[in-house]
Amino acid sequence: MRVLVTGGGTAGHINPALAIAQTIRSRQKGAEILYVGTPGGMEARLVPQAGFAFRPFEARGFMRNRISIQNLKYNIKAVGNLMTSTRRARAILEDFKPDLVVGTGGYVTGPLLRTAAKLGIPTATHESNAAPGVTTKLLAPLVDVVLLANEAAKRHLPAHCTTVVTGNPIREAFIYADRDQSRRELGIPDDMPCLLSFGGSLGAKRINEAIADVIAWHVDGGSIHHIHATGRYGVDYLPELLAARGVAIEGHPHLVIREYIDDMPRCFAAADLIICRAGASTISELQAAGRGSILIPSPNVAENHQYYNARVLADDDAAVLIEERDLTGARLCEEIRSLIHDPERLHALGRNARKHAILDANDRIYRELMRLMAGGDAGSPSSAAAPNAGA
Q: What is the pTM of this model?
């Protein structure tokens, strides 16, 4: 069994792709899995780290936000890249000869899934948001099945597309990671609240600015263990923000600042409170881990889908929602203080979040992919049986 998995650009595309790849590998011991992603994206580092073969594929979209010489040059390169994308995708597919191609979003998935479909290779794409992205909308009529995290996504796609609601794939470590063991491994005292914060793989300036105020508030008290990921762009300016607030972080035993968190399941398990964006994958991970959170949706995403993701949890008392326009360091400190001093409320947020979890999403996705390979109808329990796991 040979499976090509593709998805790239941000953690929101990469983590679901890795979760699907890991699920296939755990159930099909002889499976050969090739991950195709952008050479400059996070996947170029994370995929080999997860133990999968990686093949780079240059792909880029168009800059539409403003007219400038720099954007014009970028778009000219994007046109050239697009013109060669089918030929390059075909070369990878003919070389690897996959039995199945699965995509999870990002510019890299378009040429590969489109070309695979034309070659008659079984294809599936997964959409993690309630409002499907441009790539999913373009691919939906071409692929064999669109796997959806949310029933609401169906209304955004053509009626003739084959869709199955599976939930979002997540790494099983988010479900099974042990809190006490994780805290021991991270050096967190049993009686110390642990705060985990991040703004996405690229970093969110407003969140980093607010977190600088949070760190300045608690760093000298020594009563909170804080793990923060700055993102790619925040790693350079966060030290300056902290210095401006008179914060010395070098060697602090309970302050961990990284560009990116590679061991996120362990950090989720160890955390008492998580501050983050409201991307679909992050929401699913919060639900699976059963963790209380303060959600700050990005206002810079298509169809404002992060706000609606966050609203679902906030309306069910499963998270605190702060819109970015209302975010200040003082407001964030106030919310953190309130939750940490009210453990019952914090635990209730986590319990309510867990109620929303689809814990068998990985199994649902695996079953649909095996049905597809066996020639059965997507979503039909009477379809041809899947190959034996471990075969």
A: 0.75
Which DSSP string do the residues of 343-357 spell out, in sequence order? HHHHHHHHHHHHHT-
3-state secondary structure of 4: strand
CB 92 within 8 A of CB 55: yes
- Give 94: exposed, middle or buried? Use CB within 10 Å, 0-12, 13-18, 19+: exposed
Residues 34 and 96: their CA atoms lie apart, in Å, by 8
Residue ranges of the alpha helices (H) in 177-303? Answer: 179-186, 205-218, 234-244, 264-270, 280-289
What gap in Å lies between CA 78 and CA 9, rounded to an integer? 15
Structure confidence at residue 384 as a pLDDT band (50, 70, 90): very low
Helix (H) or strand (E) holding 314: helix 305-315
Print burial letters for 200-237: b (CB count within 10 Å at least 16), e (below 16).
Answer: bbbbbeebbbbbbbbbbbbbeeeebbbbbbbbebbbee
Alpha-carbon span 293 to 346, nearest angstrom: 8
Q: How many CB atoms lie within 10 A of CB 63?
A: 15
| Integer Rg of the chain from CA | 21
The DSSP 8-state label assigned to residue 253 in this structure reads: T
Distance in angstroms (rounded) separating the CA atoms of residues 270 and 224: 13
Q: E strands along the chain, which residues?
A: 2-6, 32-37, 53-56, 100-103, 123-127, 145-148, 163-165, 194-198, 225-229, 255-258, 273-276, 293-295, 320-321
User: Which tens digits make up the pLDDT trace of 241-254?
Assistant: 999 999 987 889 99
- For residue 309, give every residue at least 6 positions away whose Cβ sits within 8 Å of its Cβ, in sequence order, or none: 129, 130, 278, 279, 280, 283, 295, 297
Q: pLDDT by residue (tens digit) across 250-270? A: 889 999 999 999 899 999 999
Which residues fall within 8 angstroms of residue 355, CB to CB, at 6 or more apart? 316, 318
Residue with tokens 């063991």: 181
